[in-house]
Specification:
Blueprint (H helix, E strand, L loop, with lengths): L2 E7 L5 H15 L6 E7 L11 H9 L15 H4 L2 E4 L2 H9 L10 E3 L20 H24 L1 H4 L5
Parallel strand pairs: 1-2, 1-3, 3-4
Helix pairs in contact: 1-5, 2-5
The chain binds 4-nitrophenyl phosphate.
């Protein structure tokens, strides 16, 4: 059984696909690709089917990654299917929790920046309407947050309780 992570932003073309790709990179480096899997989605339907934003991909290229993915919208069943759901900002957090009408899954929803150990940002800023430096900053913040997230996941009781083959 795998531990399932879902990254969520507004459009699913900038922040959350980057987080997914960076996390997959770190998981692979750690040799844990059979144990932890990642996905991403957006709270809006603005960009359904679109690949990651070119400016975001350029920022990722500078750190050696080529972003993969196709935007999809977050759906209520995602709250059941994933073990941990990572919101990029507080608005995403509220929109995710809003889908959890019975309040059964709120404890699985966290702000990704809670896991950063170097940077002090509380949210991943939306880079969409800004310049390239904003996209570069998001990549740095995501590398920091995802490294902390991986440490958190592997030491969590929920991960350790999964019957890993
Ligand atoms: P993301 O960025 O939520 O990180 O994918 C955005 C993408 C698109 C829009 C806003 C933010 N938009 O307004 O279309």
């Amino acid at each position: 059984m795998t531990y399932k992570l879902l990254f969520v932003c507004l459009g699913n073309i900038c922040r959350s696909p980057s987080a997914e790709n960076i996390m997959n990179h770190l998981i692979k480096e750690a040799g844990l690709e059979d144990k932890i899997v990642c996905d991403s989605s957006g709270t809006s339907g603005y960009h359904i089917g679109a690949p990651p934003d070119e400016r975001m991909n350029l920022a990722a290229n500078k750190r050696g990654l080529e972003l993969q993915g196709k935007a999809r919208r977050l759906k209520p069943v995602d709250l059941q299917r994933f073990d941990l759901i990572l919101a990029m900002d507080r608005e995403n957090y509220q929109d995710i929790v809003y889908l959890d009408r019975e309040g059964k899954h709120e404890d699985k929803v966290r702000l990704l920046c809670d896991f950063a150990t170097q940077k002090t940002d509380r949210e991943v800023p939306d880079p969409y309407y800004g310049g390239q430096d904003g996209f570069d900053y998001v990549i740095d913040l995501l590398f920091d947050s995802c490294a902390g997230l991986l440490d958190y996941v592997v030491s969590s009781p929920e991960y350790q309780a999964k019957p890993h083959r």
